[in-house]
Amino acid sequence: MITEQQARQHIVELLEYIGDDPTREGLQGTPDRMLRMFNEIFRGYDPARKPTITTFQNGRDGIIYDDMIIDKGNFYSLCEHHCRTIFGEYYFAYIPNPKGRILGLSKIGRVVDYCSSRLQIQERLARDIVNMLQEALGTEYPPQGIALVLKGRHMCKESRGARKEGHMISSCLIGDFRDDPATRAEFMRFVNND
Ligand SMILES: [Zn+2]
After folding, report:
1. 124 CA distance to ligand 1 centroid (A)?
2. Cα–ligand 1 centroid distance for 83 (angstroms)
3. Taking a C-beta distance cutoff of 8 angstroms, is the pair 72, 194 a contact?
């Protein structure tokens, strides 16, 4: 287990390694700022900081929801190969089970943020998000389908190395989104037209 003091010292050494002077005025607070930033952007390693995912019983308000529900938003993560930013949009959809649970919409973004807050590859990030939401919806009456598409831009490819546009699309489709072409097409139309 590495202490905060040791981590700070390693950052000082890295600043020296890249050719800068860690003692100059502009860099004096940098190791501490980086540690505070790590605490935020890498909180996804700490199970105690997992978001609680509120769900509701379908039909609770007298209406049974069994149509596609879609949520979209942004994500920011870091690639595990270069520790460079991956950012982009996520598109999440699910079809509730009439006897199952409904997700609180704001919770989807929280799960995306939590799973993004560790070193990732885009494919695993998609998996992690879907697994957590799937778990929250329960296995007794699982949703009829779950879909997630991530449209990511990879700074490790755009700002270094190949210096080419680093666009990447990954998806994770379960249930009707995998098995029913019409359902998948409806969702993909939304994703592609956005
Ligand atoms: Zn990378």
Report:
1. 14
2. 7
3. yes
Short-list 55, 71, 72, CA closest to 136: 55
What's the CA gap between 71 and 106, in Å, rounded?
Answer: 9
Domains detected in the chain? 4-41 (no CATH), 54-193 (3.30.1130.10)
Task: Output the CA 127–ligand 1 centroid distance in Å.
Answer: 18
pLDDT-flagged residues of the chain (< 70): none
Residue 160: its pLDDT value, please? 79
Report CA(69)–ligand 1 centroid distance (Å): 32
Which residues place a Cβ less than 5 A from the ion ligand 1? 79, 81-82, 156
Q: What is the pLDDT of residue 194?
A: 81
- Burial class (CB within 10 angstroms; exposed 0-12, middle 13-18, buried 19+) of 2: exposed
pLDDT of residue 125: 97
Q: What is the pLDDT of residue 65?
A: 93
Cα 64 to middle of ligand 1, angstroms: 44
> Which pLDDT score is estimated for 159?
84
What's the gap in Å between 34 CA and the centre of ligand 1? Answer: 20
Cα–Cα distance for residue pair 79/100, rounded to 1 Å:
35
pLDDT at 46: 97
